[in-house]
Specification:
3-stranded mixed β-sheet, mainly alpha, globular, 5% strand
Length: 316
């Protein structure tokens, strides 16, 4: 039973995500975000100076993660059998966001299909930090497509990976650090130094899952173009993990992403990623499909590896 437990937990978590989606109330990450905001306001008060701010950011990172990580370790040691399996499935479900990702993407794609650019802009502003009011139809579609590909890595595949590597503590640590990076990992005067420890730790934890995600996109899409984009375009991106994921994903879909984009602070120059086709509502849907098919591929590989280990053990 213990041999098949990882496969069973992953399958149960995905079933829960499909059936229930993200909890609309009392989601643990919402409470975590409020706590993080309060602690950051208390610690990040003085004008930003490199080392004092980095030390405060490091202290804040430890303060908000270690107690929760300790509880995760305690639960893993306390529980066993079916209770451990159920708890693992619930924790992984809360960390996953496959249905939520799909819902956010379709909320942009559907008004684009009907020509309702205003609604599409409003919906895309919920999932990206770009100045949505300045985006045309292709810009909205590109932003949403990029979000589907990148969040597929952060909120789906990385959660599966860290559960398989570290159980409850692994998936909890990754999700907490990834949330901190989303809240503190800005290059603004306030967070440039304070948020750096969380951003660097998130880069470390996401390094291998991002490349496995890029490989997944490559295998399920236009493989030759995806590999070419991964090799030539990913190094130009400013994020070491988002680069491979979005370059391989854009190539797999043969869609053109990246390029200059409007932000509240102004136009941000970004490298062009992917192939020749312009982003559209269809590219958003295709990106969602790529993530979904990738999850099925991962589940099949996990099941196959488990079965091979089982059969090998019987033969021995």
């Amino acid at each position: 039973m213990s041999l098949f437990a990882p496969f069973i937990v992953c399958a149960l978590a995905l079933i829960l995500d499909r059936a229930l989606g993200e909890p609309s109330r009392w989601h643990p990450l919402v409470g975590f975000g409020r706590m993080v905001t309060a602690i950051e306001k208390q610690l990040n008060t003085q004008p930003a100076r490199a080392w004092p701010s980095i030390l405060k950011g490091s202290a804040a990172l430890l303060l908000v993660t270690l107690p929760i990580l300790g509880v995760a370790v305690w639960l893993s040691m306390l529980l066993d059998g079916v209770w451990l399996l159920i708890t693992q499935a619930i924790v992984l479900w809360l960390a996953l966001s496959l249905r939520g990702l799909s819902e956010h993407g379709l909320a942009v794609a559907e008004p684009l299909h009907s020509g309702d650019l205003a609604t599409a802009r409003e919906q895309v502003s919920r999932i990206v930090s770009r100045q949505a009011s300045a985006l045309d139809e292709r810009g909205v579609a590109a932003a949403a497509t990029e979000s589907m590909l990148e969040n597929g890595a952060d909120a789906v595949f990385a959660s599966l990976f860290w559960f398989l590597i570290g159980g409850i503590p692994g998936v909890v640590l990754h999700r907490l650090v990834n949330t901190l990076d989303a809240m503190w990992g800005y290059r603004s005067p306030r967070f440039l130094y304070f948020g750096r420890p969380a951003a660097r730790l998130d880069d470390i934890l996401g390094w291998l899952p991002a490349r496995l995600t890029a490989l997944t996109y490559t295998l399920l899409g236009q493989r030759k173009l995806a590999l070419q984009c991964w090799r030539s375009q990913a190094p130009l991106w400013d994020s070491p993990n988002a680069g491979p994921v979005m370059a391989a994903g854009a190539g797999a879909l043969n869609v053109r992403l990246g390029g200059p984009s409007p932000y509240p602070s102004g136009i941000k120059p970004r490298p062009v990623l992917g192939g020749t086709q312009a982003a559209s509502a269809r590219s958003i849907e295709a990106a969602i499909g790529l993530v979904r098919h990738g999850v099925w591929l991962w589940l099949a590989v996990i099941g196959l590896v488990t079965l091979l280990i089982f059969v090998t053990g019987l033969a021995a």
